[in-house]
Amino acid sequence: MTACAIAHLRDHPGPPPDVVAYLERIQDTLDPYSGRFLVHGGPMEVREGEWPGSMVMMIEFPGMDEARAWYDSGAHQEILPLRTDHIDGTVVLVEGVGPDHHPSRRIDALRRAAGA
């Protein structure tokens, strides 16, 4: 089952040189884990609620093991401060769903967890 790394990055005045260096090097850290960008910035529309930030990044991996291994890898940890020292944000790893996923299965799981 696929997994994604999702980043919600807050506003920043412009890309500092370190962030440019991070962007130039990140793909090399993804390649060993078959990571690929699904979303990397671009126009967005807020349809509900507030969105305190400007950048969204979503990277797909074959599974959670690869997503964790990428994030924790020496290559990624080496370049990570180039971004985190200049841009505030939140990054999460989340497991995806298969092609046969149906929303009712999630409801059933929530009911079982609640003891209903």
Automatic annotation (TrEMBL):
Organism superkingdom: Bacteria
Organism of provenance: Streptomyces macrosporus
SUPFAM superfamilies recorded: Dimeric alpha+beta barrel
Identification of the protein by name: DUF1330 domain-containing protein
Domain spans labelled DUF1330: 15-97
One protein family per Pfam: DUF1330
InterPro entries: Dimeric_a/b-barrel, DUF1330
